Structure formats: structure tokens, C-alpha cells
Amino acid sequence: MESNDDPQLRLAREFLQRLGLSRGEIWDVLMALPMDVADEDPFEGVARAPLESGYRRYREVCQAYAAARGFGFIDLDRIQIPQDLAHALPPDFMRTHRTIPLRRRRSSLWVAMPMPVSRRVVRATGEVTGCRIVPVVAETQEITDWIDRTVASPCRASLP
Predict the structure, then answer these.
(1) Long-range contacts made by residues 87-91, C-beta under 8 angstroms, separation at least 24?
(2) What is the mean pLDDT of each run of 10 residues along the chain (160 residues)?
(3) d(Cα 109, Cα 14) in Å, to the nearest integer?
(4) Could you tell me if 90 and 138 lie in one domain?
């Protein structure tokens, strides 16, 4: 890991350092990544590698990912989302894209999204709402649980 490595590897190394991994653990994680990590978000493989290696809890990885990418992190179990805001996105959209509207201010909408944050989902959410989207990272299971508790499923909504 020399100083002249590519910017994606440098960012990945900094991300893993924020998690508190040692040089040896960072080396192990980076060497375990597939060579074609040129997905939409280069952190996807990097963020999952420590989990698969058993290094850290998922929440810690999400928090470090959010910090490294400049996003906020939110614990959905600790907040109350206003009902009117909870319906700012269509239920099917929330289920499909695992997004939850959190806060609206002027033309900006803060939206909980799982790691890694997808630019495609940010764009689609902006098109649906007409707002500038501000992604906030949340644990995937918390998002799914919140949607299951709060948003009526098409089956439940059609029952008498």
C-alpha cells in the first residue's frame, strides 16, 4: 500500500482506518476484495469486507461509511418520524428502494438509505419528490422494520 496507489484504494484504506482496523487487518480486507470493485459505489465491497471477515459490528461499519462519505447516520429506533412526512414517498417506492423520508426543509428532503448509498436511488427519489435529496445512512434492517411497521402493505390495505 504505497502512497501512489489509486484514489479508490486510498479512500478505502482511510475508511478502514476509521473503523480502527490494524494495518494487517486493512491489508487482509483490501486483498480479499475482487479486482473489479468498480461498482456504482467503490465502498460497497470495502464496507462489506470487514463484516464478512468478522472484524466489526454492522452498525459500526455503517457509521464509519457515513463519516467517510460525508453522510449523516441515524438510528431509526430512536426517532419519531411525523406521519405526514412518513407518506412523502409512495409505499412501493419505499419498499423497493429501502428509503424513508426523515425531514423536509424548504426544497430539501433528508432520506434514510442503506449502505452503500446509491446515486441512482438518490436521483429517483428526487424525481419522485421534486426535492433535493440529502442521504442519511441507516442500518438496512432498521429501514425494513420501520417500513413493515409503518407503511401498509398492498395486501393489508385491501382487506376489509
Answers:
(1) 88/129, 89/125, 89/128, 89/129, 90/128, 91/147, 91/151, 91/152, 91/153, 91/154
(2) 59 74 70 51 57 65 80 88 83 92 92 86 93 92 88 50
(3) 29
(4) yes
Cell numbers placing 102: 426523515
Does this model's pTM top 0.70? My answer is: no
User: Do 110 and 134 touch, CB atoms closer than 8 A?
Assistant: yes
What range does the domain containing 134 cover?
Answer: 76-153
Tell which of 43, 70, 97 closes a domain: 70
Based on the structure, what is the number of domains in the chain?
Answer: 2
Distance between CA 21 and CA 46 in Å, rounded? Answer: 12
| CA–CA separation, 67 and 18 (whole Å) | 9
Q: What is the CA radius of gyration of the chain?
A: 18
Q: In angstroms, rounded to a whole number, what is the distance separating the alpha carbons of residues 44 and 37?
A: 8
